[in-house]
């Protein structure tokens, strides 16, 4: 009966990149049998409020924020109207029956066009196509004036500059987005099942847009089928589906089709940076200047220009850069709005930086490895504050570099490169260093950078009456196996077998509110720390109960192997089950103690934690086709204490493969009219299983002082420097006179152009 009541929602999307909506006729669609509702943006404008922004950078401009556009469309795929019907087939037939008359407008498809004084305006009320600007260094009252990067560059022994482009790419998660909402009239209450990383943030956003109290909305995040940041933001359908469930008083579902995902789900990257670095006579960096543009697409998504901000803030990377002059400009174009994707602005910073170091090395008469070694932050300098104001917590960067080059796999790589060259094919080896901003917080800093939520996390722990442990996390697993890592952490902290622990997550009715949700590589360090706090509170309460039962002082009661015993007494201890039974019976507890064993731990980090590492890549080039193969990679990595080493390694392998795609094949291109060139995997090439390189992964362990378990994040490490290392290797494979590779992906035609270069004599 429930299934028969369920309706399906589909969205009519714009076929134009830029056009005025002259008229919309929904008469024929409404007349189709099985259609329950049809609505346009004008009809819903006052019904559904504007979206909220997670990243609301100071001075940023916003769009209308409604789930359906009204007067004009600004990118191919923008929602124009919506149909709710008996099933997908009827809904799609009705959608196709809607007649829209458009007046096409000139499309703005590049950042240069967007900045042209005579460019068409996407948002006329803005007065231009600039969404926000940001700059570094930032002067802080009470602190000395930042060093003058202009003077440092003017006095530099050598200055190297180049312009770099990172193309627009898409997360292409295994499963597309989906939303199902049920309506319970007895509440009234909405239960939303949605493939999201951020259940509490979706609840907040839907409540604000629909005017429904948050306590009448329940959000459940099931298995999301991959996310990579793309599912961290609120999408139009997540407001439309509950709106129609409320209006129609029946369950409504939306399932994004794969071709829809290429125009409706947020892509990322898409930056162009002019970067220059000055060096002294000893090849040490004296200053850095960057001017870069972020192509935001048609309007800011929920994360605004956050990825672009992260690029500038983290541009110094792992190097000692004493002075910076960085300026970022985010502009709008007639493309799908930009959003988050694994790395969140960090690959866009790493690629220009690591490529320019390779370009500079021969000009400075140095090997690329030696140039990096001279400029890496030394271990005795930590904690180290960068010229952009980021506090780097801990690390031994030079050791990591040396360890990578001492690996037997590096000797194998050198031998294989020489064998490939002897066989008549180009081959090269490239290196890139990186650090990764993880454990994203703290809450006190967020308002300074435009983040409208907090950076803390909460976990609850319950010891059941039988002594078993239940942990409820606010994090959302997306394939990173958090449930296993947290079960291990809880088992260690409670001192119980792993199978005595159950981990639950992804439900706003049971998971405690968490501020920034699952993203920014914060689960192990921040959520893990909140779990430690909750577990320790529970163990402390049990110790006090055990002491009461044993007629001992709590300070004399020790806890080990799932038992509580009086230290040195030699007598048998009390089991978890015995102590828990007393806690829930309630009649024999210490005076003033509440019955039960349910605790909450909330953790807000003092500062960020920076994982770091080095990537070495070998490439093998087909000289006839320009196809590039990556046979081997070495990946050195340090994320502090590891909760589960196998999970850490798997995260690195997956990220490295995504970085390989970004370096060589993945790109969403648009023609002059703003039409995307990719609407499926026939046009958008991701790496496949046979293309996975042989990966030699090794680790060092430098705990962070800013997490209770010493853990740093690992979710984005793999993807940050892999493109840089691969392109550095590819440059090494080309003739010495080949033009520098400055854009990714490096497609086969670009490789063939480089191979056609006359070798330097």
UniProtKB/TrEMBL annotation:
This protein's record includes keyword Phosphoprotein: no
SMART domains: Ald_Xan_dh_C
Source organism superkingdom: Bacteria
Keywords: Molybdenum, Oxidoreductase
Residue ranges of domain Aldehyde oxidase/xanthine dehydrogenase a/b hammerhead in the record: 1-106
Pfam families: Ald_Xan_dh_C, MoCoBD_1, MoCoBD_2
PANTHER family: ALDEHYDE OXIDASE 1-RELATED, XANTHINE DEHYDROGENASE
Name recorded for this polypeptide: Molybdopterin-dependent oxidoreductase
Species, as recorded: Pseudonocardia kongjuensis
């Amino acid at each position: 009966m429930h299934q028969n009541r369920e309706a399906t929602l589909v969205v009519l999307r714009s076929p134009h990149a830029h056009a005025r909506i002259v008229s919309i006729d929904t008469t024929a669609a409404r007349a189709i049998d099985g259609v329950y509702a049809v609505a346009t943006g004008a009809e819903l404008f006052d019904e559904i409020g504007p979206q909220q922004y997670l990243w609301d950078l100071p001075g940023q401009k916003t769009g209308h924020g409604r789930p359906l556009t009204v007067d004009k469309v600004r990118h191919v795929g923008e929602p124009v109207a919506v149909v709710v019907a008996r099933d997908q087939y009827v809904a799609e037939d009705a959608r196709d029956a809607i007649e829209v008359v458009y007046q096409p407008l000139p499309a703005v498809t590049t950042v240069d066009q967007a900045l042209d004084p005579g460019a068409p305006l996407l948002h006329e009320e803005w007065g231009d196509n600039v969404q926000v600007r940001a700059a570094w260094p930032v002067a802080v009252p009470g602190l000395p004036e930042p060093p003058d990067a202009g003077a440092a560059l003017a006095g530099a022994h050598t200055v190297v500059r180049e312009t770099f482009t990172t193309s627009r790419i898409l997360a292409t998660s295994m499963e597309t987005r989906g939303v199902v909402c049920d309506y319970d009239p007895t509440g009234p209450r909405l239960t939303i099942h949605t493939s999201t990383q951020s259940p509490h943030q979706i609840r907040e956003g839907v409540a604000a847009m629909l005017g429904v109290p948050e306590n009448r909305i329940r959000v459940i995040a099931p298995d999301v089928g991959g996310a990579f940041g793309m599912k961290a933001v609120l999408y139009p359908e997540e407001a439309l589906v509950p709106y129609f469930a409320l209006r129609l008083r029946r369950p409504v579902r939306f399932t994004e089709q794969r071709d829809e995902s290429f125009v409706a789900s947020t892509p990322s990257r898409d930056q162009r940076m002019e970067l220059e670095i000055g060096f002294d006579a000893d090849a040490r960096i004296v200053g850095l200047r960057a001017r870069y543009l972020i192509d935001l697409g048609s309007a800011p998504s929920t994360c605004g220009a956050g990825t672009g901000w992260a690029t500038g803030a983290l541009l110094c990377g792992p190097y000692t850069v004493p002075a910076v002059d960085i300026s970022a400009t985010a502009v709008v174009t007639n493309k799908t709005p930009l959003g988050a994707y694994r790395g969140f602005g960090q690959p866009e910073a790493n690629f220009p930086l690591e490529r320019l170091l390779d370009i500079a090395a021969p000009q400075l008469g140095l090997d690329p490895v030696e140039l990096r070694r001279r400029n890496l932050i030394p271990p005795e300098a930590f904690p180290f504050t960068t010229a952009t104001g980021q506090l780097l917590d801990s690390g031994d960067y030079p050791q990591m570099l040396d360890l990578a080059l001492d690996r037997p796999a590096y000797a194998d790589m050198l031998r294989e490169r020489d064998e490939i060259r002897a066989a008549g094919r180009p081959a090269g080896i490239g290196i890139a260093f990186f650090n990764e901003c993880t454990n994203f917080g703290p809450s006190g800093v967020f308002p300074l950078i435009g983040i409208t939520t907090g950076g803390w996390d909460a976990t609850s722990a319950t010891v059941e009456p039988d002594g078993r442990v239940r942990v409820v996390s606010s994090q959302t697993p997306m394939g990173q196996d958090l449930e296993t890592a947290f079960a291990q952490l809880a088992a260690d902290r409670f001192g119980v077998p792993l199978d005595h622990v159950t981990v639950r997550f992804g439900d706003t009715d049971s998971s405690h509110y968490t501020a920034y949700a699952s993203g920014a590589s914060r689960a192990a360090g921040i959520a893990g720390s909140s779990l430690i706090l909750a577990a320790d509170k529970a163990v402390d309460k049990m110790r006090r109960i055990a002491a009461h039962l044993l007629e001992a002082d709590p300070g004399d009661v020790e806890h080990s192997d799932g038992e509580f015993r009086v230290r040195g007494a030699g007598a048998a201890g009390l089991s978890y089950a015995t102590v828990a039974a007393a806690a829930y019976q309630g009649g024999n507890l210490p005076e003033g103690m509440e019955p039960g064993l349910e605790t909450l731990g909330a953790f807000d980090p003092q500062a960020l934690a920076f994982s770091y590492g080095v990537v070495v890549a070998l490439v093998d080039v087909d000289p006839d086709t320009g196809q590039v193969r990556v046979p081997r990679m070495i990946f050195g990595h340090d994320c502090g204490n590891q909760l589960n080493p196998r999970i850490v390694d798997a995260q690195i392998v997956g990220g490295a493969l995504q970085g390989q795609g970004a370096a060589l094949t993945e790109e969403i291109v648009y023609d002059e009219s703003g039409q995307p060139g990719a609407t499926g995997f026939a046009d958008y090439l991701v790496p496949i299983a046979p293309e996975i390189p042989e990966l030699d992964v090794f680790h060092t362990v430098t705990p962070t002082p800013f997490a209770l378990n010493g853990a740093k994040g690992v979710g984005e490490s793999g993807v940050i420097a892999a493109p840089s290392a691969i392109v550095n290797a590819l440059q090494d494979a080309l003739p010495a006179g080949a033009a520098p590779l400055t854009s990714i992906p490096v497609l086969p035609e670009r490789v063939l152009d480089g191979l056609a270069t006359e070798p330097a004599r």
